[in-house]
Design goal:
Layout lengths: L6 E7 L6 H11 L5 H13 L6 H4 L5 H6 L6 E6 L4 E6 L7 H8 L4 E7 L6 H12 L4 E7 L8 H17 L7 E3 L23 H5 L15 E9 L3 E7 L4 E3 L3 E5 L7 E10 L2 E3 L1 E3 L3 E7 L11 E4 L6 E11 L13 E4 L2 E14 L6 E4 L9 E8 L3 E2 L11 E6 L2 E13 L3
Parallel strand pairs: 1-3, 1-4, 4-5, 5-6
Antiparallel strand pairs: 2-3, 7-8, 7-15, 8-14, 9-13, 10-11, 10-15, 11-12, 11-14, 16-20, 16-21, 16-23, 17-18, 17-22, 18-19, 18-20, 22-23
This protein binds guanosine-5'-triphosphate and magnesium ion.
Length: 426
């Protein structure tokens, strides 16, 4: 059997229209994964729809509405094989109406390519996506400064964008981020080295893929698999799908999914595990899997429930303490506020029941006890009461299961992590 390459999930994020889908489409075309004829058809289709120039984007934007509007709406996934890795490439939408989909994608990603148009620099969703990546535990970040053709491949312009972005990334704790100047539409530095930018001597996008650090897979932690979707497949039965965040899962494992429909958890046994349309005996942290369980029906469980082993079930809480940073609230955040929390695959309205401490965002030191309100830029320790039972873990125990973002009226208001909780009895 051929030796399996390590698997890595990468996502393309950034402001609307900065060229994420075009970059991904160009990368697949220039590396031979999309043939000439397909590309010619996509070009004709783009012209027919009055969207000339979107042909590379159409490689990833398959929905009719996406092609007609020339925007990405939902996530799309495509596999890329490089020398070192087997890569799942995820193309995210940049439009602010679809941030929800971007969040789902980022929660599955190990690395993010932040695409920034050279002439525009950091825009609203450039910043929002960067913060969301940080909150959702995306460890590696690479910036692609795109559309270099529109600034005449100017090195000074590239450096200007690089300086602006380096500051922004630093504020979120992303250090030593590589920057690559590209013109995705024309193919500069995507797969082929650009002759238009002799001043750049670093890797192309494709070369960068193999320079990514192999993600640290927390296989030694307890099994946690947030359910993303549940199917009922004739002849097989209930097939939940999701990404294993921590631990490992094997066929015949005795598992529990909590809180589940009745709130008490439901137990079963893993019959089969499928990954990339192949049956495998075992899967581990970082793997996106579908699996079949004995003893659990489709109606018993739903998106947002979490699977673990029976002897170490995921934690269901009735209340938790969190550290948050307020990113974008229209006024001030006070006790009683009840926005939607996005936690792993779950979305639950939660009430802020106390603001315990205001912290210095840079050092984490307490600067005020029991403040009346929080405003943009403030960091704080708050108490949170979910409107229904949910699974979350402490950052110190299982970091990947502790992070969340808070959204309200179409924007990301805050991001944070759970540091303590009150367990709910099942
Ligand atoms: P959303 O997914 O909707 O957020 O957009 P996106 O970031 O995926 O952008 P997309 O790839 O759809 O490209 C948007 C527009 O930018 C299209 O008209 C592309 O042709 C154009 N574009 C992309 N890359 C380049 C480039 O390198 N140079 C120039 N001049 N235009 C580009
Ligand atoms: Mg797109």
């Amino acid at each position: 059997m051929a030796k399996q390459k390590p698997h890595i999930n990468v996502i393309f994020v950034g402001h609307v229209d900065h060229g994420k889908s075009t970059t991904v489409g160009r990368m697949f075309f220039d590396s031979g994964a999309v043939d000439e004829q397909t590309m010619r058809k996509l070009k004709e289709k783009a012209q027919e729809l009055g969207k000339a120039g979107f042909e590379f984007a159409f490689v990833m934007d398959n929905l009719k509405e996406e092609q007609q509007r020339g925007v990405t709406i939902d996530l799309s996934y495509k596999k890329l094989l490089t020398q070192k890795y087997e890569i799942t490439v995820i193309d995210a939408p940049g439009h602010k109406d679809f941030v929800k989909n971007m969040i789902t994608g980022s929660s599955q990603a190990d690395c993010a390519y932040l695409v920034v148009a050279a002439a525009e620099g950091a825009m609203a969703q450039t910043k929002e996506h960067m913060w969301l990546c940080k909150t959702l535990g995306v460890e590696q970040m690479v910036v692609l400064v795109n559309k270099m053709d529109t600034v005449k491949y100017d090195q000074a312009k590239f450096n200007e964008v690089k300086e602006q972005l380096t500051k922004l990334l630093g504020s979120a704790g992303y250090k030593d981020v590589p920057f690559i100047p590209i013109a995705a539409y024309h193919g500069d530095n995507v797969v082929k080295k650009s002759t238009n930018m002799p001043w750049y001597t670093g890797p192309t996008l494709l070369e960068m893929m193999d320079l990514l650090k192999q993600p640290n897979r927390p296989t030694n932690l307890p099994l946690r698999l947030p359910i993303q979707d549940v199917y009922n497949i004739t002849g097989i039965g209930t097939v939940p799908v999701g990404r294993i965040e921590t631990g490992t899962m094997s066929v015949n494992d005795k598992i529990i999914i909590v809180p589940a429909r009745e709130g008490k958890g439901i137990q079963g046994e893993v019959k089969t595990i499928e990954m990339h349309h192949e049956t495998v005996p075992k899967a581990e942290a970082g793997d996106n899997v579908g699996f079949n369980v004995r003893g659990i029906a489709k109606k018993d469980i739903t998106r947002g429930d979490v699977l673990g082993h029976i002897n170490n079930p995921p934690t269901v809480v009735s209340e938790f303490t969190a550290r948050i940073v307020v990113l974008n609230h229209p006024t001030v955040l006070t006790v009683g506020y009840t926005p939607v929390f996005h936690i792993h695959t779950n979305q639950v309205a939660c009430q802020i029941t106390a603001i315990k401490q205001k912290l210095d965002p840079a050092t984490g030191q307490v600067i005020q006890e029991n403040p009346d309100f929080l405003k943009n830029g403030d960091a704080a320790v708050v108490t949170v009461k979910p409107t229904k039972a949910l699974v979350i873990e402490k950052n110190a125990d299982i970091a990947r299961m502790s992070k969340f973002s808070i959204r309200d009226a179409g924007s990301t208001v805050a991001a944070g992590m759970c540091i303590d909780y009150v367990k709910k009895a099942l």
